[in-house]
Amino acid sequence: MRSTGTYAISTTLGEAVQAFVPHALPPRKPALAGESFIELNRAAELALARLSGVSGLVPSVDWLLYSAIRKEALLTSQIEGTQATLVDLFDEEAGIAVRNTDDVEEVTNYLRAFRLVQDNLRDPQGLPISVRLLSDAHSLLLDGVRGAGKQPGALRRSQNWIGGTRPGNAVFVPPPAERVAALLADMERFIHGTPASELPPLVKIALVHAQFETIHPFLDGNGRIGRLLIAALLEHWALLPEPLMYLSGYLKQHQAEYYRRLSNIRAEGDWEGWVSFFLEGVAVAASDAERGVVAIASLVTSDRRRLLQDPKAGPASYKLFELLPLMPRFTVERAREKLETSFPTANAAVKLLESLGIVAEVTGQKKNRSFSYQSYIALLSR
Question: What is the rounded CA–CA span in Å between residue 346 and residue 320?
Answer without folding.
Answer: 8
